[in-house]
Design a protein that fits this description.
The protein is α+β, with helices and mostly antiparallel strands. The chain folds into two domains: 93 residues, no CATH class; 100 residues, Aminopeptidase. 26% of the residues lie in helices and 28% in strands. The chain has five helices and ten strands; from the N terminus they run αβββααβββββαβαβ. A ten-stranded mixed β-sheet has the order 1-3-2-10-4-9-8-7-6-5. β7 and β8 form a beta hairpin. α2 crosses α3. It starts with a helix and ends with a strand.
Length: 219
């Protein structure tokens, strides 16, 4: 079984076409660009910024026009709309985290098929089963969905009902799910908006540090 860091590298090489970056900015492409993702959607642009450089993966026809902008991501982003033929195209960013050592929190949750009546709408697109915490009456309190990107990477997404917040349910569910992902041979990842402080606190508390990785995609 690959070490956890190598699992992330294998995922990024498949998804982006290159990783780690060999220069300040690498514009490339990948067979993953026209492929439907975990939810059936096609992501024509994907990328990752790191303290060591950035890889931006775009459709094949856009590679050379964007490479002519040099190694300045701001210039590349300015040329993105024309290169893609999408007038409103611009890049959005997220904080991408991963872990090989989830917090040692007590396990929580039960696996429930997504078509079960108790599963809220936001969790249904994840497919398969989701990890839920329920109250003594069987009502939904919190849940984790898993975005199974490929054999090497599973991204976790968590949500808690407003009335159930502040009990540590999200933290325990994420830690439980992350341990299972590791046992399955993948790397658990976690993404959130840079301005989402509550989600950042959950990530930090469950052993997902901020290593300076920023996901890129079309807003």
């Amino acid at each position: 079984m690959k070490p956890v860091g190598e699992r992330l590298t294998a995922h990024l090489r498949d998804d982006l076409g290159a990783w780690p970056p060999a220069a300040r900015l690498v514009v490339t492409t990948s067979p993953a660009r026209p492929r439907p993702g975990w939810d059936g959607a096609v992501r024509v642009v994907a990328g990752l910024e790191s303290p060591h450089g950035t890889v931006l993966s775009v459709p094949p026809h856009a590679v050379e026009p964007l490479r002519r902008c040099g190694d300045d991501l701001v210039a590349v982003e300015s040329a993105l709309a024309e290169a893609l033929g999408r007038p409103s195209a611009r890049l959005a960013r997220s904080v991408l985290r991963w872990t090989d050592a989830p917090a040692d929190l007590p396990a929580l949750g039960e696996e429930v098929p997504v078509d079960d009546a108790v599963v809220p709408e936001w969790l249904r697109p994840f497919g398969g089963t989701v990890l839920l915490a329920r109250d003594e009456h069987g009502r939904y309190l919190a849940g984790v969905g898993r975005k199974r990107h490929d054999r090497w990477c599973t991204e976790l997404a968590v949500g808690t009902e407003r009335a159930a917040r502040g009990r540590g349910l999200a933290r325990r569910l994420v830690a439980t799910a992350a341990r299972k992902v590791l046992d399955e041979g993948a790397v658990p990842t976690y993404q959130h908006d840079p301005d989402n402080a509550p989600s950042a606190r959950v990530a930090e508390a469950t052993g997902f540090p901020d290593l300076g990785l920023r996901g890129l995609w079309l807003a």
